[in-house]
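step: validate -> pass
step: tokenize input -> pass
step: predict -> running
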Amino acid sequence: MNPRETFLAACNQIGEGLTEFGFKASRAGQTLKKTTTNKDITFEIDFQSSSLNSTGSVKLLVHVMISSKRLKKWALEQNDGEYGQGMIYAEQLGYLTPFKEWKSWNVSETVQERAVAEVIEMIRMYVLPIFDLFENSENAQQFLQLNGTKFNRYANKSLSPMAFMLCFAGKEASQEFFLNYLADATGKGLILKLYHELEGGEKINLMHSEFAESVSVKLAFLNDLKTNI
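step: predict -> pass
step: emit ->
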């Protein structure tokens, strides 16, 4: 098989290993999706490869995402219909696991069986519990309010669910989520600087990201959250 065929074969083997959990494959097996019972929240696992693959080295990277139709509709209302992001949370698999890095697997034919088995195990152990949490949005809200995105001891803290919290959980829970994040955020200085600029009348553009968490910070400001109480 050529590298492309080898990559797709690995994707499909991973998909087959996760069939029992209700995922459906698309894009020739490169994407696995399933939705909650109420059809609002979608769980997605995407497989990425590289144009630099060779016969002996075929890269496979795994990205996970949780999104919501309701959240997308809410987001459109925040900025005159220009901002329609429905993403609740997204991460690269490596950052949810003991690897704690941007992780790729070599799925070339000679090592494919072992690599595929490891990817399936990593998804089962570290991704599916997160998806299970969001099967009930109230459980997810309560978890995020208290723990942020520390879904396990390897996961990083992120403000990306801010929109979800504002839309689903309301101001009080969102405020606690925000303050818990700020308590030891590595980018706290940037966040406070942006908040000061917004308080001074800086125009809010949700389509522009000054830094990784800036859109979530702008949403917090738009919804009257405080950086300290």
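step: describe -> The mean pLDDT is 95.
step: cleanup -> pass
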